[in-house]
Every structure is written in C-alpha cells, then in structure tokens.
Amino acid sequence: MSTIIQTKDLTIRFGSLVANDRLNIEIEEGTIHAIAGENGAGKSTLMKMLYGVYQPTSGDILVDGEVMHGWNAAMARSKGIGMVFQDFRLIPAFTVLENVFLSMRDAGFVLKKKELRKQILTLSEEYHLGVNPDDEVWKLDLGQRQHIEIIKVLSTPNIRVMIFDEPTSVLAPHEINRFLEMLKSFRDRGYAILFITHKIDEIVSVADRITVLRHGKITSSLSREEGFNRDQIIRSMLGDDVSRMQISMERTVPDISGMENIELDRLTIRDEHNREILKDITLSIRRGKILGVAGISGNGQREFAECLFGVRKSTSGRILFGEEDITGSGTGKRIGLGFRMVTEDPIHDNVVGNFTVLENMALAGLEVTTKRGDVDWKDLEEQFRSHPEITDLNVPEVHRIAGTLSGGNVQRMTFARAVVSNPSLLIACYPSRGLDVATVAVVHQTLMRLRNGGAAIILISEDLSELMELSDELVVFAAGSASGPFDPGTADVNEIGRVMLRGAGSNE
User: Fold this and answer.
1) Tell me: the pLDDT tens digits for 317-371?
2) CA 20 to 30 Å from 328, out of 24, 120, 313, 475?
3) By 3-state DSSP, what share of the chain in percent is helix, strand and coil, each rounded to 5?
4) From CA 454, how far away is CA 425, in angstroms rounded?
5) Residue ranges of domains in the chain, CATH in brackets
6) Coil, helix or strand at residue 484
7) 423 touches 340 (CB < 8 A)
8) Are strands 316-321 and 262-270 parallel, antiparallel or unpaired?
9) How far is Cα 2 from Cα 35, in angstroms, rounded to an integer?
C-alpha cells in the first residue's frame, strides 16, 4: 500500500494554545485510519489542516511524497482529498442537485445538470445512499443530509482520500451499522479513509490503524496486525485520568415534598412547516425521575423540547407546572421557574460565537452578581473555577472564544451551563452526542445526581442503551404519538426498536 498523505512535525497554535504538537502520521490507500482522543485533543484541528482549512504554524504536509506549499482546501480537492464535516455545508432551501452543483462549481469543476443528475443517481445506487437529486434539503433528516455530503465528496474528480469528522454522531442506531459497512466498501475500492470518532466499539470494528491524540500529541499509533482493544484505547486517550470512568450511578429516593411536577395534557405541536408533528401527548414529568424519550430522528423530539422550553407554541393542550398553567408563557418565564435545556444543535442554538466561554456560561447558567453597577466578572470566574460540574466536565478555559471551540467542547460547555443552577426541569437533548467516553460517564453521573436531588429530567437520545440505563420511565415518539411509558427494567429492547420504526399501533 502506498502512502498518500504524510505529516512531519505538524504543529498549529491558536494564541498560547498548542492544538497539535509535532504530529507525524501516514495515511495509506485502501485503509481505514481512525483518529481517537478526548474532546479537545486536537482531532478536528488535524483534519482541517489536512484538508487545508487551517494553515499549520510549523511542520510539513506531504502528498505523494511532495511537500505542499501554500496548502489550502482547493489544493486538497485537486489532489483528490475530500472531507465530510461534522457541521454540514448545505443550503436547506436548495435541492440536493443544486447543493452538489454549487460544491463542484466552488471547487472549479462544472458538470451540466443533466450529467450531474445522472452522476448523483449512479453514486446513490452504487453505495445504497438513497439520495434523490430533486429532494429539498430542508425536508431531509440528518442522516439523509450526511448522504448528500458524501455524494459531494464522491463527486470530486479523482477522489482518493475521504475524511469523516464524527460521522456517526448524527445517525440513529439503525443507520450506524450501514454507515460502517459503507466505510468498508470505500476501503475495499482503494480509498483512504480518515475516520474521527469517540465511539471505541466503532474503531475496533472497522479500523485498520488507530492514532490516539491526547492534549494535541500522539500517545499511540497501532495497526490492526499489531493489535488494539477497547481498554488499551481508553488508557491511551485518558492516561492518568482513567479514574474518571469510575463513577457512581446509584439511584436514591429524593425528598420531593413541595416540588412541582410538570403535566402535559393532550398537547399537539406543529413543526415550522405547519405539519402536525405530535398529537394529543399526555405525560407526567415527575420530580426525582428521568423520563427517557426514544425515537428515530425527525419524529417530533426537537419540537417537543422547544415547546416545553417555551421556544415553540403548542397548537392545543396544556402544560401545567404544579397547579400553574404555563402553556402560553415564554422562555423567560420558564427559565425563572428553573427550566434549562441542552438543545439538539448547541453550536447553532445555545452559543454566542464571539463571546468567551465565561460570557456564555453567564447566560442562564452561573449566578451573575454585580459590583458598582457592572457584572462582577471576578466573582463569575471564581464560580467557574470552583464549580465541580465545570471541573469534572473539563470545560475549556474561561477566555477561549466559543466560536473557536470543537463540537465536543461546545457540548461540554452548554451541558455544564444547564446543570450548574440545579434546574427544576432539565431537558437534555442528546447530551452525550460527540463526547468521549470519559465525558459521557461524567454526563451520566451528573444526570443521576440531579435526579437524586429532585430535578425532573427529560432525556432525549437515539442511543437505546443510554436510555435503558438512565431512565426511570421511557416513552417512544413515532408516527405523531407517544407510546408508553415503558419500564426500562423490564422492557424488551427489540420491542422498543419495533415501536421506534413502525409507530405505536404496529403489531408486526
């Protein structure tokens, strides 16, 4: 196998932060090369350097043995290197064909629309992607949008290296195995695959080589022939911090006397296109309990969370907080009642990009005090540095600009902000998405601590094992209705999966 990309002492700095430190990696044709590490280890930064988005501070990138000078994304594409980003680069109002056409035109390649349509259909059929050139992107779920990004990369002339940044973080469980099989098919056709993932089982399943980063440095690089396993990868990722995996998940019965439950009475919710996405939802959201919400992406989970938090109005029905009807109240009122939410897409929904981490943490998170009529930033910083949740989650340094953070670090920050105020209701949408194994363990422990302290928690996740482990009760959203509640201790996982796929009324 020949080496396509090689790095020599590749280093990049952002101010005083050394994001990648003297990295030496070889990417060979016909292999799946996994890049693993904790959030903030420098994985996405490395990929963006290899694709030409970031320029290295020092060191070299070699393609086919030749040092690349003035390396940028256009050069990368001309050398047959493509990347599927974690945050998709699509225009929702355009069709699939129009999005692919724009990506090729931007790269300097133009096909007539008739030829491009034929190419999209051929690639879709060849790799079982199910992409229709005439579909409008806004109507598609995240998994389908990812397929468009893959089509865009495959449409690059002479493509031979494909970079995937946390590709399975947006996929439902039933889609992940298909995706991994697709990676194998790419490899078998001679492509070099760079695969960033925090899911160690996926690495063990498909990777031919794994390189582990920690604090921007390589801690290990092993081929499948040399041998690697789950425990070995975790130790390379965490080093001396492996003790962070050892957490308590004990359930206790909290004292909830005087605490208000939340009751949903025949709630009907429409999406932004005025489609009835959920109808007549009646649920009790009880203090000191975790209510898990399962369902295939696009079955009303996002709209349900937004309605509870006051971002979206219901079409009919009521929301009661204790005896108080809060159906018509807005987000400000609900924040005042102790409601907090971690959204499905925190980068776009939860973060002010040009604010610092500390400034973002002050938005309905840390307690804001004043000094001589101004925000007491020193007090906020002291709260930040002393708060156990912030410390345990390894939230980035206070002066980092939020817009420069990786997706995993944004997830850490927004989750920490939601929990530091001990909410009465926490709506946690996919809280472990994109996080490394140690941080997922801390998130789970934090949810259990809040539950044991009397908080009501709604946990929305596509990871059935996570829901079954953490939830006290489980409901499934499918076909516009809520099935359940199920008892996770006795429920049949296969039955839950069938309800997710077919809806409440299925007897198949």
Assistant:
1) 999 999 999 999 999 999 999 999 999 888 888 889 889 999 999 998 888 888 8
2) 475
3) 35, 25, 40
4) 9
5) 3-241 (3.40.50.300), 247-338+423-508 (3.40.50.300), 351-421 (no CATH)
6) strand
7) yes
8) antiparallel
9) 19
